[in-house]
Every structure is written in C-alpha cells, then in structure tokens.
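Sample entry (153 residues):
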Amino acid sequence: MPKLKANDPFAEPRGKLLTPRFVISLLLIVVGIAWIVFYYAAVRPDPSVIPLPKAGGPKFMADLEDWNYLIGFGALFLGLALAAHPSTPLGRGRGVVVGMLGCFILGLLWICTFYVISDDPSRIWVFNDLGQKNLFVGIAFMAVGFAYATRWE
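Predicted structure, serialized as tokens:
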C-alpha cells in the first residue's frame, strides 16, 4: 500500500486535539446546555408540577423569562459554529462530516419531533415553553451544519 505524501489532498490533516479555540467551543456548548437545563428545572415556575408562588432564583434569570432560551441556545450554537474551524478536531478531516451531519440530523429531528407533538407539547421539556420557536431551533441547528459544510473537502 503506498504511503500518502504530506502534500496529498486526500491525506487527513493532523493537528492538536485541545486547541484554545476548541476548549472555548466546548465550554460554550456546555454552558449553553447547562443554562437551558438550569432555567427549565430550577428557575422556571411550573405550577402544575410544584405550586410555587413565584419563580425560583436567581432573580435576574427569572426576570429574563424566555430570553434564557435565547442565551442558552445562542451559546450552544456559537460554540458549535466556533468548532467549525480547521484548528479544531471538528473543523478538519472526518470531524467536518461528523459536525455537519450531526447538526443536520439534530435540526431535522428537532423539527420533526415538534411537528409530531405539536398537538400537545406539554409532555416534552423545553418544547412546551418554546412553542412555534422550536422551528427556529431546528433551523439554527441546520444553519450551523452549513458552517461545517463550507469546510468539507
């Protein structure tokens, strides 16, 4: 079997695994998911589950109400988009395909799940709060997938 040369276009480029950009991307993704989960589980009042007189704390987060989802999903999508750079493992080689297909499939599943449960979205977390904004989330996953698609060779 012939050995691939360094300038061969089919050779998979190698690089460091943990670059500063990738660490920041991972941090943004984790913070975004944690923000959404914390808001939904601890801050958001749900009188059908636990009768609370008012929203939980911290107060600034309770005051933001649905803007918390924009902050959480914004951090998540920003982290995914930052990871679509050649200096990160998801921005080169097979990582591009994984990131692109992963985002496309997640977006498609998000939208399809919303349409299937749209009659009664109260059964699934986050979907019940977002309503029609679930379409924005699914489309945003697909938009981030296109950021990976521009890196595909």
